[in-house]
Specification:
Layout (H helix, E strand, L loop, with lengths): L9 E5 L15 H6 L1 H7 L3 E4 L27 H13 L3 E6 L9 H8 L9 E2 L14 E3 L5 E3 L14 H16 L4 E4 L18 H12 L6 E4 L6 H6 L8 E2 L2 H5 L4 H15 L7 E3 L8 H4 L20 H17 L3 E5 L20 H5 L43 H5 L5 H15 L5 E3 L6 E6 L4 E5 L12 E4 L12 E5 L1
Parallel strand pairs: 1-2, 1-11, 2-3, 3-7, 7-8, 8-9, 10-11
Antiparallel strand pairs: 4-6, 5-6, 12-13, 13-14, 14-16, 15-16
Helix pairs in contact: 5-6, 11-14
Bound molecules: alpha-D-glucopyranose (GLC).
The site of alpha-D-glucopyranose (GLC) has 9 residues, from loops.
Length: 501
C-alpha cells in the first residue's frame, strides 16, 4: 500500500471564529489565521482542517451554508482563502476544508427558490405531513412553511436537509468538490457523513450513501493525494468500516476513542477494536481527543465520570482541574503514539479547560436554546484562544471577542507557555516533533504490563507506557524520549505517559 501523507498526519483543527482576529471585530478570520501560520509550523502539524468558512447566517456556527463556493465576509474573501492555501503550502502544511452535504441554509438560493415555488422543492425534503422525527439539537425535525408543507431539518430549522434522491444534488456537490480541489485544498472533512440518504422511515447509514462516496472518491482521484475524511458517529464498527473501503473515504474520526473514559480496560478495548476495524479495509485509524462539539479533555478527565456521550455536554459537574490537566497530558502522548493519524483541536495544545460559566445570554449554540437550556451546548469549547498578554482579549485581536475569555487564561496564553519548558504547549511541540520522526502510520505490539498500565511498542522501536493506576510503576530499559510528567527515580507515576527507546 502506498504510504501517502494523510495516513500518519497530525491534523490541527482550526475553529476560525475563535482562532485569531485579524481585523479587530471580535471574530476570528483568515487574516488572523494567516498571521499565525508560523505558530502552526512551529507546533509541528502536517495539516490544518478548518470548520466551514462559507457565507452563512451562523445559525449553527457556519454549518448552515448559504453558498458553498464563497467565503463568509466576516472571515475574509475568496482571494484571501486562496492566499492562505498558498501560504500554508509554502510552509508544507496541507489544508483540509469542511463540506456540509447533509443540509444547507434557509438563506441559500436553492432554499429560497424552494420556498417561493413549490415546484422547486425536490432538492430538499418537503412533505405534506411530518413524521415523529426529533431534531438532533432538540425539538421536532420538521418546520412548516406558509403554504402548509413541512421541510425536514435533522439539525436546526435554519438547516434544511437536502434530498439525495435528486441527481441535481449529486452534481452540485461533485462540482463544489472540484471547485475547492481546483483551488488547491488537500482534502475535505465531510460533515454528518452517514445521514445524507433518507427514506420516509430512516435516515442513518442507509446503504445508497456509499454510492455518493464512491463517486466522490473518483473525483478526488482526478487530483493528486487528496483526502476524504468522514464524520461518522456510528456504533456498529462493521458498518463504520464500510465507509473506509478502498473505493470510498480515506479516513474517519475515531469518536470511540474520544468518548472513552480514562480507564485502562476501556482504552485497551477501544484501541484493539479500532485496529481490528481498520485493518481489513486497509485504512489508517485516527486518534481524536477533542473537537468543537465536545467537552474539553482537561475538564472531562477531571470528573468522576470521564466518558463523553455525543450531544452530552453537562452543566456544572465538578471537575478536579489538576487531575484533569495531568490526565490530558498523559492522554495526549498516548494518542500521539498510536498508529495512524492524529487530530488536535485548537486550544487542546494549550490545555484550555471547558468554559462552563458563560453567561446564558451569550450562548450561541442552537443546542442550548433548542434544549430549553437543559444542554449547555458547545460554546464552552469554542471560546477564542488566548495568545498573549495579561488580560482579555489576550492578543486574540480587537477588544471584545464574540465569547468572553476567563481572566484565569492569563496563565494559559501561548506566549507564556512558550517560555515554560514544562507547559502543555511545549509538550505538544516536543511530542509532535518526535512523532513525525518515530511514530505516525504503522503497527503496534502490546507488551505485558502491571495492572492498570498500558504498554505497547511501535514498529519503529518506540515504547509507549501509560500508567492509569494509583501506584508508580517501573519503565522498560532504554532512553526516555519524552514524558507527560516528572518521573520518580526513573519510574512512571500515576496518570503519566512516557515514550522510551
Ligand atoms: C457536525 C458538526 C457540528 C454541527 C452538525 C450539523 O456534527 O461537527 O458542529 O452542528 O454537524 O452540521
Amino acid at each position: 500500500m502506498s504510504h501517502t501523507w494523510w495516513r500518519g498526519a497530525a491534523i490541527y483543527q482550526v475553529y476560525l471564529r475563535s482562532f485569531a482576529d485579524g481585523n479587530g471585530d471580535g471574530v476570528g478570520d483568515l487574516a488572523g489565521l494567516r498571521s499565525r501560520l508560523p505558530y502552526l509550523k512551529d507546533l509541528g502539524v502536517d495539516a490544518v482542517w478548518l470548520n466551514p468558512w462559507y457565507p452563512s447566517p451562523m445559525a449553527d456556527g457556519g454549518y448552515d451554508v448559504a453558498d458553498y463556493r464563497g467565503i463568509e465576509p466576516v472571515f475574509g474573501t475568496l482571494g484571501e482563502a486562496e492566499r492562505f492555501i498558498a501560504e500554508a503550502h509554502e510552509l508544507d502544511i496541507k489544508v483540509i476544508i469542511d463540506v456540509v452535504p447533509n443540509h444547507s441554509s434557509t438563506e441559500s438560493d436553492w432554499f429560497k427558490e424552494a420556498l417561493a415555488n413549490p415546484a422547486a422543492r425536490d432538492r430538499f425534503w418537503f412533505r405534506d405531513e411530518p413524521n415523529d422525527w426529533q431534531s438532533i439539537f432538540g425539538g421536532p425535525a420538521w418546520t412548516q412553511v406558509p403554504d402548509g408543507q413541512w421541510y425536514l431539518h435533522l439539525f436546526a430549522p435554519e438547516q434544511p436537509d437536502f434530498n439525495w434522491d435528486n441527481p441535481e444534488v449529486h452534481r452540485e456537490f461533485e462540482d463544489v468538490l472540484r471547485f475547492w480541489l481546483d483551488r488547491g485544498v488537500d482534502g475535505v472533512r465531510i460533515d454528518s457523513a452517514a445521514l445524507l440518504v433518507k427514506s420516509d422511515t430512516a435516515y442513518e447509514d442507509l446503504d445508497p450513501v456509499h454510492d455518493v462516496y464512491r463517486r466522490w472518491r473518483q473525483v478526488a482521484e482526478e487530483y493528486d493525494e487528496r483526502v476524504l475524511i468522514g464524520e461518522l458517529w456510528l456504533a456498529d464498527q462493521e458498518r463504520f468500516a464500510r465507509y473506509l473501503r478502498p473505493d470510498e473515504l480515506h479516513t474517519a474520526f475515531n469518536f470511540d476513542f474520544l468518548a472513552c473514559p480514562w480507564d485502562p480496560d476501556e482504552l485497551r478495548r477501544v484501541i484493539d477494536l479500532t485496529l481490528a476495524t481498520h485493518a481489513p479495509v486497509g485504512a489508517p485509524p485516527t486518534w481524536v481527543l477533542s473537537n468543537h462539539d465536545v467537552t474539553r479533555p482537561v475538564t472531562r478527565y477531571g470528573r468522576s465520570d470521564t466518558s463523553f456521550a455525543h450531544g452530552g455536554a453537562l452543566h456544572g459537574v465538578p471537575s478536579d482541574p489538576e487531575l484533569g490537566y495531568r490526565r490530558a497530558r498523559a492522554a495526549a502522548l498516548l494518542a500521539m503514539a498510536l498508529p495512524g493519524g492524529l487530530y488536535v483541536y485548537q486550544g487542546e495544545e494549550l490545555g484550555l479547560p471547558e468554559v462552563e460559566d458563560l453567561p446564558d445570554e451569550l450562548r450561541q449554540d442552537p443546542m442550548y436554546a433548542r434544549s430549553g437550556g437543559a444542554n449547555p451546548g458547545r460554546d464552552g469549547c469554542r471560546v477564542p484562544l488566548p495568545w498573549s498578554g495579561d488580560e482579555p482579549p489576550f492578543g486574540f485581536g480587537g477588544s471584545r471577542p464574540w465569547l468572553p475569555q476567563p481572566e484565569s487564561w492569563r496563565k494559559l496564553t501561548a506566549e507564556s507557555q512558550l517560555a515554560d519548558l514544562d507547559s502543555m504547549l511545549n509538550l505538544y511541540r516536543h511530542g509532535l516533533r518526535l512523532r513525525r520522526e518515530h511514530l505516525g502510520d504503522g503497527t503496534l505490539t502490546w507488551l505485558p504490563a502491571a495492572e492498570r498500565v498500558l504498554a505497547f511498542t511501535r514498529d519503529t522501536g518506540v515504547t509507549c507506557v501509560t500508567n492509569l493506576g494509583t501506584e508508580t510503576v517501573p519503565l522498560p530499559d532504554g532512553v526516555v524520549l519524552l514524558a507527560s510528567g516528572g518521573l520518580e527515580d526513573g519510574a512512571l507515576p500515576p496518570d503519566t505517559t512516557a515514550w522510551v527507546r
